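re: that chain from earlier
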Amino acid sequence: MIEIGKQYRVEPTYKKSVVEREIFENEDKTKYVCLQELWRWGEYLITPQNEDEVEMLMTGIEEDEGICVTDFEEWELDNTWDGCATDFEFWGKGWESEEAKEAFEEEYFEKYYEAFEEHDFMSIDCEVYINCKVTAVEVE
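^ sequence. v structure.
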C-alpha cells in the first residue's frame, strides 16, 4: 500500500527503461537542444504528497504504462547507471544545417555538459520517465 508522506525507492522492472529528457535554451532564446539519455537502470526516491500522486505511483506499479518521475512534487535521483543511448533534438535558428547539429553532437561527446556551457545554453526543463512497470519499496 502506497501512503502519502512515506518515501519509496522506485525502479523499473525491465532494463533500458529509464529516459531523461533535458531541454537547453541559448541566452537569446533562439536555439534549443533536447538531450535524451537512455539508462540501463535507475532508482529514484519518491514521496507522494497527495492522493493523485499515490494513484500515479499505484498505476505505475500495477500497469505497464510506466511513470513520469518528474510529475511528482517530491522526488530525487538515487542513481542511474550504464547509459546506453544518447539522442538529440534541435530546433530554433542556427540549426538549419546538418553540419551544425553534427558538430555540436561531436563536441558534446568530447566535453559533455561543458559543450552546453561554452555555447551559452542553460537547462530550462528536465523530465524523467520510467517506461515500464515499476517497483516501489518503502524507505525506512
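The chain is about 25% helix and 45% strand.
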